Recover the amino acids of this structure.
């Protein structure tokens, strides 16, 4: 089981009231929400391995070079050397180090790679896996990794963590008319304002799905631009033709990396908290006793 950690703690932050505070008044709603989320996932799914995948760089320079608008609207501050600073709610940023300390104290593997997003870590670990993989994320971009033959699916939280939408190929075809790899093409044609991806003007989700159905994949659509016998409308042909520079680079931006060099780590789900003293100290310092006990109990059972 691979966790898109930032996506999940964002959801926890907005799903748990900010009245949940440590004894010193620091909000810990995202921390508590995420720990409860993980406890419930462990309890319901009992994965052999559990990896919290992290954003070492939420807006990699190599993606921005290809599409400068990539996540540009979410930049709070540009930096010369390291990752840009992302605009996050004031009371969420201070909770991230607490989340990281809690994962480490429990012995839950926490993995990131310099210059890459959590999505790329997930893509790499999914590609390496020899057995079934469940990807837990609130980000639809990862639908591109769904593959029934290899037992890869996405668990997408609909309401808290109790209700997860199990996304497999049948669900994708029903909803979008594409399979996993087709979803990446659909996303880049349609565009995604939340990621600053412009898409092809005039091509929404339904048109993108129809184009992929008619021409198979992005290469087939591009070939159709030059084929006078293809059934593209004059407007579609013109817009796709004008979008060639974008279509040439968009796949590299939208598709997750699958060959990232990762540090060594132990993915095995711990049977009990790895560092009980650290866990107890965190529970006391941040007033997280209930959430920590629930996760500890889920690991033991």
């Amino acid at each position: 089981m691979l966790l898109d950690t930032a996506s999940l703690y964002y959801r926890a932050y907005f799903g748990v009231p900010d009245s949940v505070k440590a004894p010193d008044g620091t909000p810990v709603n995202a921390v508590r929400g995420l720990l409860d989320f993980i406890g419930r996932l462990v309890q319901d799914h009992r994965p052999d391995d559990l990896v919290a995948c992290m954003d070492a760089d939420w807006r990699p320079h190599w993606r921005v070079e290809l599409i400068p608008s990539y996540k540009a609207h979410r930049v709070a501050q540009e930096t010369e050397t390291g990752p840009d600073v992302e605009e996050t709610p004031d009371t969420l940023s201070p909770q991230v180090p607490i989340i990281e300390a809690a994962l480490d104290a429990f012995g839950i593997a926490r993995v990131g790679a310099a210059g890459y997003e959590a999505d790329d870590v997930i893509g790499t670990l999914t590609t390496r896996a020899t057995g079934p993989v469940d990807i837990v994320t609130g980000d639809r971009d990862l639908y591109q990794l769904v593959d029934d033959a290899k037992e890869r699916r996405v668990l997408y939280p609909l309401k808290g963590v109790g209700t997860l939408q199990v996304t497999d190929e049948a669900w994708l075809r029903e909803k979008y008319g594409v399979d996993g790899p087709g979803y990446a093409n659909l996303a880049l044609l349609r565009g995604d304002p939340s990621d600053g991806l412009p898409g092809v003007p005039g091509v929404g989700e339904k048109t993108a799905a129809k184009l992929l159905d008619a021409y198979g994949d992005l290469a087939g659509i591009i070939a159709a631009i030059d084929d006078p016998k293809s059934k593209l409308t004059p407007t579609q042909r013109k817009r796709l033709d004008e979008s060639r520079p974008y279509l040439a680079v968009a796949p590299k931006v939208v598709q997750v990396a699958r060959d990232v060099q990762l540090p060594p780590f132990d993915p095995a789900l711990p049977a009990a908290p790895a560092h009980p003293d650290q866990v107890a100290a965190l529970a006391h310092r941040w007033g997280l006793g209930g959430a920590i006990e629930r996760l500890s109990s889920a690991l033991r059972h």
Observations:
- The radius of gyration is 21 Å.
